[in-house]
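Continuing the batch. This is chain 6 of the set; chains 1 through 5 are on the previous pages. Same settings as before, nothing changed between runs. Recording input and output for traceability.
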Amino acid sequence: MRYATILAVLVAAAGPGAANDPPVIRGEYIEARTCDVWTGPCFANGEINLLGKNAVAGWIVTKGSWGGIALDGLKVAAALSAQGTLHTANEGKVTAVLFVDEKASPSQAKALVEMARELAPKHLGTVARTERCAISFTREGLEGALAVGDVAKIKCTAFCACDRVCCNEEKAYPSISGSARVDCAKTLENEYRGPGLDSTWSDPIKRGSMLGTFAR
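Output for chain 6:
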């Protein structure tokens, strides 16, 4: 009886329907790393501090708002450079460049940046540069393509049987973005050629992409 009473108090304090409140914002998410993210544990351990220091990520809002600002159809992307392999104890300092949809109004641009930084606080804490540019995205199943102006791009597709190496592959890392549900995909293109980071890269044909959705 005591525990039932405590539970009832907690539910009442949360407000009606709090546990079932729909997301305020939702959309598509894509990410590509400069290492395999779908791999066996031995392969992942062998890449630490050698690969996986860079990534491109993109959030594509399908519907919703942030801070009361409607963001339907708008996009924000990031390029990341870390001292060590992302999402490991050796990650070190991470520096990012943010790209905001050129179609966004000033208030929408601010909201997109705030959204991205709250969804990925660990990796977007240090932003060296923020730019406005054209961002495009297409997706069909696990085939996805993100183009960020002429400086960054991701293209990925579904794996086939020949992409297995050890038959013990799994998702070795979580996504950069919180509140994301993703599947791993094969990278066809992963490129960053812009300013603001200590490196540029082109890292195609790798088991290094994630594609899915986010909701918050």
